[in-house]
Amino acid sequence: SSHYTFQPSSLGSFSDELLLDVRSPCEYSQGHIPGSMNLPLFSDEERRCVGTIYKKVGHKEAVRVGLDYLA
């Protein structure tokens, strides 16, 4: 599958495009690309929970919980 790797130097070529930032609101507020729109996949609390599970249990369980939030 093909994918696009974002390069900050290419921002000028996105003038007619919408740039979505899917990080949590807290992460977005700490810094984001000017003009981007925040459409978070997880709330701040959900992100904290997934991160805690990742640290205490592991990657596989964190992914499972994250996918449950998205269902």
> Overall 3D geometry?
elongated
Low-confidence stretches: none
Helix count from the secondary structure assignment: 3
Q: Largest sheet, described in full?
A: 2 strands, parallel
What is the average of the pLDDT values?
Answer: 88
Q: Proportion of β residues?
A: 5-15%
Q: Helical content, roughly?
A: 40-55%
Q: Rg to the nearest angstrom?
A: 15 Å
Tally of strands: 2
Oligomer: single chain
Order of helices and strands: EHEHH
Features:
single chain, elongated, mainly alpha, 71 residues, two-stranded parallel sheet
What does this molecule look like?
By secondary structure, the protein is mostly helical. The chain is built from three helices and two strands. It has helices at residues 25-30, 44-56, 59-70; strands at 20-21, 37-38. A two-stranded parallel ribbon has the order 1-2. The longest helix has 13 residues, at 44-56. The radius of gyration is 15 Å and the shape is elongated. The two termini are 24 Å apart. The mean pLDDT is 88.
Secondary structure: elements and pairs:
Blueprint: E1 20-21, H1 25-30, E2 37-38, H2 44-56, H3 59-70
Parallel strand pairs: 1-2
Helix pairs in contact: 2-3
